[in-house]
Amino acid sequence: MKRRPRFLPVDLNRSALVGAAIVLLVIVLSVLVPLLSPYDPVAATGPALAAPGGQHLFGTDQLGRDVFTRTFAAGRLDLILALVGVSAPLLVGTFLGAVLGTTRNRLVAWLWLMVIDAINAFPFVVLVIAIVAVVGPGVTGLLIGLAAVNWARYARIARSRALILRNADFVEATRVLGYSRLRVLVRHILPNVYSETIAYGLSDFVIVVLTVSSLSFLGAGVNPPTPEWGAMIADGRLYLQTQWWITVFPGLALSFTAIGVALLAHGVSGRYAGEK
Amino acid sequence: MEAESPILRVENLCIGVPRRRRGLLSIVDTADFQLRRHQALGVVGESGSGKTMLCRALMGTLRRHGAGVASGRILYRERDLAGAGEKVWRRIRGRRIGYVPQSSLAGLNPVLTVRTQLTEAIHAAREASATEAEDQALQLLELVRIPRSGQVLEMRSHELSGGMRQRVMIAAALAQEPEILIADEPTTALDVTIQREILNLINRLRERLKMALIFVSHDLAVIEEVCDSVMVMYAGASVEIGPLEAVVRHPRHPYTRALLASRVDLAVPGEDLETIPGDPASVGAWPSGCRFRPRCPLAEDDCREGVQPPLAPAGLQRTACLHHDRMGCDP
Amino acid sequence: MSSGASPETARTTPSSAGVKRLLARTLRHLSRAALGALGVLLVTFTLIHLIPGDPVEILLGDAATEELVAKYRQILGLEGSLPQQFARYLASVAQGDLGTSIQTGQSVNSVVARTLPMTAWLIGVTVLMALLMALPLGVAAALLRGTWFDHAFRVATSVSLATPSFYFGLLLILLFAVRLGWAPVAGYQPGFPGNLQYLWLPALTMSGALVPILARVLQSSIAETMEQEFVETAIVRGLPAPVLVWRYLLRPSLAPTISLLGYILGQLLSATVVVEIVFNLPGMGTALVVEGVLLRDYPVVQGIILIFALIVVAVSFLSDTVSGWLDPRTRLS
Question: Domain ranges in chain A?
């Protein structure tokens, strides 16, 4: 008699639901912010350093820009950047991993695997920073850095999955039927592998969104005056003791988004997100 | 007279798992037997018949498996332990009840040496100096016929073979000189030759240490090797209980008879083995009346009524079958 | 109580065969570690060199004349093919020379020597702090499964994991340094034990990311152990509670946590970079961002990455060894 784990399945749906609600709220606010707010996110629209209140819901920053407008304008940018930062490596990495998992060329597979493991063992953000250091800070550098490092994680997952699938009965059966290796890979292995990596992609989204803002905070990502959560927090740092709202609101938005996606990922895959 | 009074009496024991908002899921009910000093009781039944849960009830570990005693009594030397708390059980376990678990690989702690596991069991049972405990650990290993005991003392479970592991498990259970030894399928995972050695060992030790034994197995042939009485369980209920000879020679329950008939070791080459028709009743989906009814060749309309029939005397044993008088007297 | 066997045979310590096995295992781990380090080095080297755009031209900008470019190429070791460059770099690294900064003309070795001790201290304090918090938390969460504590634990760890360390660090500064005055707002003075005053708040910040992961893994690992038959056996033997918790719950569950720690520590270096900037600590992370990203100092980036790679390898070697010591099962593979 084994007791059923307690976190199945009631909690699961609840956490996915809460997560989806949070993510939806952030997305809606980010998309609708031009309609909801009369202010320009990059121009001074009021007195500098005004406290949160009727005119400016989240107050204004040191240049008199509206923090509410900037927070959700930043949300749009961060979400898009994270989406690109997840999907590009997902597509490339999964394909590569699936090929590595099915190839018969042992040496090539071993070499690639060594590269993949080396990248994965290395601190993620540090490697992205190193690449940004060479390419140059900015959105392009950030995305190149993310793509160059993050594909390896997807490749690792896809490879292990493909290795299992290669020996699965139904794949064995297609081979007996004389289907070409390419057809087996594309029609039978890839779809199954993608379902696995997409599930991981959701929890990876949390890590990527935190990385994007971390790099922007360090000055290696999105450049001012473009609103971005990490950059805004870096901006407000000097005023932390007195004008806390410049830092706290974008930070809350960031954490809130990350929690929402993590809950969603946890609900969908039954695992905790963020545990790499 | 004292020698004949049972040390353990289990009366109408019911074990259940509480379910959220849906009451109790019954896993074992009407378990009913007694154990005298030096008696060896075999408990036989298919998997899912509640054998292991019964053992857990006797050791007070139901709660960590999410189950509990619903009703009935576990009288240990006339003291009811059915509702006892951890404190009471802690005094009973080890010193009074020893346990040899089902799987010997998982039964030993993989990170501790045999020495640590034996000596800590000794220390848990009584005061002993480190040297005394160690000397006794060595003696125990020799008692269970482990060669090179000095070396084995320093080993961990993955360095031991299956048979050795089970010997160590038995040694650890004996370390506390229990009155009752509970062995749950102790030989199931072993090779046949090793199995025989372990059974011989248990026999010898029981003789020597005058322990009572509860030996759980799905295999009647194994129980015949070590036990003098047997309890047959089906779908959480005791269906027949009595002296081994009587039960094997003259089964008084159709399920017992079916078990005997399907024994591989008595099969005649070339003939099909007899099997029991139908599927075993599963927990939570027990039929009304007698639980064996859907698979029983003797079933009549009155078997359908009420709850599982209680054990009633029949010959030398007791049986739960309402129609045992219609059973032929050969197995 | 007399025993037939002599106590000597009973108390044999690890035999010479055991020592040999241990040595072989250590060698195997070491060689794997060395191979890993080489792999990381190769990968970072390739990544940095495969990046679009000529670093020299980017570096020199409009001032790039043919002469200058050629000169810088030589300084930076960018002549010849990629394999040639890599071989040259490896050779100089093997001699202990990490190159020269193009911005300051200092040797990269001196940059590392200046910044490494502080970063090492930060990592050490963090690991100690995180373990001290994660062990009791994980045990409590496992034993109190399904209670309010478990739920609170899960919510708290989720929130903590979703909070970026730069934000968490700023909040901690606001609370502990500004409001309560328990720690300096920023800066660093080397020298134990005075440096702890500067390090405890950054270490707490990094623990914010480390503790939830460790505690959760420990929790699920203990939960798995609790299902094991040997725990049941130990309970039936009536072992005292401390023995039960330490020997039968914690020790068999610790190995996965320690191996994970080894892996996460690598990832933790990312947090080091961010936290050093937040707390204005003069460590390798600050050097990487300031001299690497802001000043585009190519050899410094490469040198620091190499040191980071060595730290990653050393740490995973260490955690393999420790978890092997804790749990002999892992030694089998």
Answer: 66-273
